[in-house]
Amino acid sequence: MADDHEHAFRRELKVLDSTMLVMGSMIGSGIFIVSADIARTVGSPGLLLLVWLITGLVTVTAALSYGELAGMMPHAGGQYVYLREAYNPLIGFLYGWTLFLVIQSGTIAAVAVAFAKFTALLVPALGESTVLLTVFHHSVTAAQLVAIATILVLTLINMRGIHGGRLVQNTFTIAKTTALFGLIVVGLLLAHDHDAFTANLSRFWEASRTEVSQGVVSTIPLTGFGILMAIGAAMVGSLFSSDAWNNITFTAAEVVNPRRTIPVSLVLGTGIVTLLYLLANVAYLGVLPFWGTPQGADVLSRGMQFASSDRVATAAAWVMLGPPAAILMAVLIMVSTFGCNNGLILAGARVQYAMANDGLFFRKCGTLNRHGVPGVALVIQAVWASLLCLSGSYSDLLDYVVFAVLIFYALTVAGIFVLRRRRPDAERPYRALGYPLIPAVYILAALAIAADLLVVKPDFTWPGMIIVLLGIPVYYVWVFLRRGTAGL
User: Fold this and answer.
1) E strand or H helix at 427
2) What is the chain's pLDDT, residue by residue, as a tens digit (488 residues)?
């Protein structure tokens, strides 16, 4: 249908651009924050690194598998198309529905809220404590409006064409990757002379769960199955921090030579980010004590576990660079989250575009504006993500996102098995590495983590599953409307 429009997608994304989109969409605020919660959950420097290592292996494994699907079906919509073709339109719709309601829009909102939090470090008046108005007992803060403003600005940039979005993505990804690399280098250089590094090595595998209730800190030793459950729970943060690598598949219609470029960018992008994340945590452990207390008077006594507002990277930078570190890190994280959200906003609307062309979303979302981008889909995505900014905290949105993501990642990788059986002669310029073993291991790992989250974080994961299932009646409503009125 896209070819029937007056305006068409423009193929401008080359290997560098595509890799920057993968990396830039992955690196947001998580790597600078979530290690504190992981540290409290597993209680061990060794297990902290293991959580990040497992997350990295899971992510790279999935990327290797997605390369085959991307080579087979280089169309706008990416993962939505893979699920539709591997299974049926209903499964594809459930992914697109969940992506719009929770996965993509929720991630955009969460990253925007993180941007606002660090903006408040530079301008306190723009923080969460500044309440601008109260509506039905719900407060609207300056931080929420800052988050919404960033979403709107980036949406406007991307509505003017892929060229502007690509330029913003490349610039901000290079800037934040360079800064993160600098932080890692300084941390590793200081580690061998720092007392914290020696102390962390002395209890490297001593697992425990740390809880704070009414100001009282309790530590619960972990053994056996308890360790496995804790690792699964801790991976909520690391998986969220490593998510959105698949966004490049959504933009396939704008990629130059997508059958080759997308698989290459997936492997390069996820591999580089995984290495950076591991090294960043090694750098944190090199200068910060792993254990601490919430009442600690300084960054060393609070340690990684109780870094102020979970800002582990800021605490580590303070040890490395002194008082200016807080400002420097706030600026770095603002750059990081701004660039991350650009990639998410750029890519997400392409799924609604594909759904609309299948008659499963608002018809106007299936059209391109004069700049060759789905302008209406971008606007609708911005409106919903902005509403989510007003609805919940960063951690709430994070928990919703991860469970739904895991389910659909597992289904998508399983689609490789389905399509190899159903379409054995289809063109496959790239084949999943280690098939069938590596894809099968990924599926089992993703489902195991999802099952763990259902047990340890039921308040958020079960509602996420309900959202997915609610898409079933909605799908049949769209089908009915498509048959009766030829769309909306």
Assistant:
1) none
2) 444 445 688 899 999 999 999 999 999 888 998 999 999 999 999 999 999 999 999 999 999 889 899 989 988 898 999 999 999 999 999 999 999 988 898 889 988 988 998 898 889 998 888 888 887 777 888 999 999 999 999 999 999 999 999 999 999 999 999 999 999 998 888 877 778 888 999 889 999 998 887 777 888 888 888 998 899 889 888 988 898 899 999 999 999 999 899 999 999 999 999 999 999 999 999 999 999 988 888 889 999 999 988 889 989 999 888 888 878 888 999 999 999 999 999 999 999 999 999 999 999 999 999 999 999 999 999 999 999 888 765 456 556 667 888 889 999 999 999 999 999 998 888 888 889 999 999 899 888 888 888 888 787 778 778 888 999 999 999 898 887 665 44
- Return the closest-CA partner of residue 31 out of 230, 217, 277, 253: 277
Q: Name the domain count of the chain.
A: 1
Torsional sign, CA 355, 359, 360, 361: positive
Q: How far is CA 364 from CA 254, 325, 374, 376, in A?
A: 20, 47, 9, 6
Taking the C-alpha atoms of residue 147 and residue 389, their distance in angstroms, rounded to an integer, is 7
Q: Which of 390, 318, 320, 342 is nearest to 136 (CA)?
A: 390
Are the beta carbons of 338 and 150 closer than 8 angstroms?
A: yes
Diameter of the chain by CA atoms?
A: 73
Read off the pTM: 0.89
DSSP 238-293: HHHHT--TTHHHHBGGGBSSHHHHHHHHHHHHHHHHHHHHHHHHHHHHHHS-S---
For 70, the domain range is 2-485
Looking at residue 416, its amino acid is I
Q: Are 70 and 258 in contact (CB under 8 A)?
A: yes
Nearest to 374 by CA among 345, 342, 339: 345
Distances (CA, A) of 58 to 62, 92, 235, 296, 444: 6, 23, 11, 36, 10
Q: CB under 8 Å to 8, separation ≥6 — which residues? A: 2, 368, 372
Give one DSSP letter per residue of 121-154, joined into a string. HH-GGGSTT-EEEEETTEEEEHHHHHHHHHHHHH
Q: Is 374:349 a contact under the CB 8 Å cutoff?
A: yes
Separation of alpha carbons 323 and 51, rounded Å: 30
Which domain CATH number covers 383? 1.20.1740.10
Does 436 sit behind a cis peptide bond, omega within 30 degrees of 0 on the bond before it?
yes
* Measured distance CA(455)–CA(317) in Å, rounded: 36
Phi first, then psi, for residue 134 (nearest 5°) are -125, 125
